[in-house]
Amino acid sequence: MTDRSTALITGASAGLGLALTRTLIGRGWRVIGTARRADRLDLVHEELGERFRALPGDITDPGHREELAEIVSGATGLGLVVNNASRLGPSPLPKLADYPLGELEQVYRTNVVAPLAVLQFTLPLLRAGHGVAVNVSSDAAVEPYPEWGGYGSSKAALDQLTAILAAEHPDVPIYAFDPGDMRTEMHQAAFPGDDISDRPEPETVVPALLRLVESRPKPGRYTAADFATGAVRR
């Protein structure tokens, strides 16, 4: 991947998406970033300049995805797609027996359906550009944490979706990546009123994610800790 590479990052206005965007721009990439908050994306554009193209919108909206597909198709050398946008669900987190089903549908639209839709239109471009796809997962996908059933089950579905896509498209590296706990607005919403200042900043996770992208190990689900020592399964 060169300084002519383009990345598509969803949820690019905050958290891990913003931290990754800043790093890639600093390395000479161009980034197409999408998120629901137009005001936040405008601030990112002001900070990072013309190498960042902001496209505000809801990734669950088919019309927004069509616009995104048109812009991405005209980009030079799509080298990376990161499906980072996620929806936590109600805060405080409810037990599954009490989970509002309309809210659960929204969680699945954001965390499962939208990432698949994005990859459906970007896979041919990634194949042509020898690029990589990453779906951002969570430890809640594999651990049965009480009250995390909505978000966790959606990320478990995303993990399985990722694994099947990787099996169906062996010519495109496709990974699930669990960054671990981070000091983000969404994580705070999961623990309203709690002090989460002991969680690491998203910027600390970016090096692990980039090592995954650059090393291109065998398809699978990886955590940030897998890359902490530089040891990568191949």
How would you characterize the overall build of this protein?
Helix content is 42%, strand content 14%. The chain has 7 helices and 7 strands. It has a 7-stranded parallel sheet with strand order 3-2-1-4-5-6-7, with helices on both faces. The radius of gyration is 17 Å and the shape is globular. 40% of the residues are buried.
Short description:
This protein is an alpha/beta fold. It has helices spanning 15-26, 38-48, 62-73, 101-128, 149-168, 185-190, 206-215, and strands at residues 6-10, 30-34, 52-54, 78-83, 132-136, 174-178, 220-223. The protein has one domain (6-227): 3-Layer(aba) Sandwich (Rossmann fold).
Strand-helix topology:
Layout: E1 6-10, H1 15-26, E2 30-34, H2 38-48, E3 52-54, H3 62-73, E4 78-83, H4 101-128, E5 132-136, H5 149-168, E6 174-178, H6 185-190, H7 206-215, E7 220-223
Parallel strand pairs: 1-2, 1-4, 2-3, 4-5, 5-6, 6-7
Helix pairs in contact: 3-4, 4-5
Instruction: State the order of secondary-structure elements, H for helix, E for strand.
Output: EHEHEHEHEHEHHE
Strand content: 5-15%
Give the C-level CATH assignment.
Alpha Beta
Biggest beta sheet summary: 7 strands, parallel
Corresponding CATH architecture:
3-Layer(aba) Sandwich
Name of the CATH superfamily = NAD(P)-binding Rossmann-like Domain
How far apart are the termini?
Answer: 20 Å
Structural class: alpha/beta
Level of helix content?
40-55%
How many E-type strands? 7
Q: How many individual helices?
A: 7
- CATH topology annotation: Rossmann fold
| Uncertain stretches of 5 or more adjacent residues | none
Order the strands across the largest sheet as they lie in space.
Answer: 3-2-1-4-5-6-7
Shape: globular
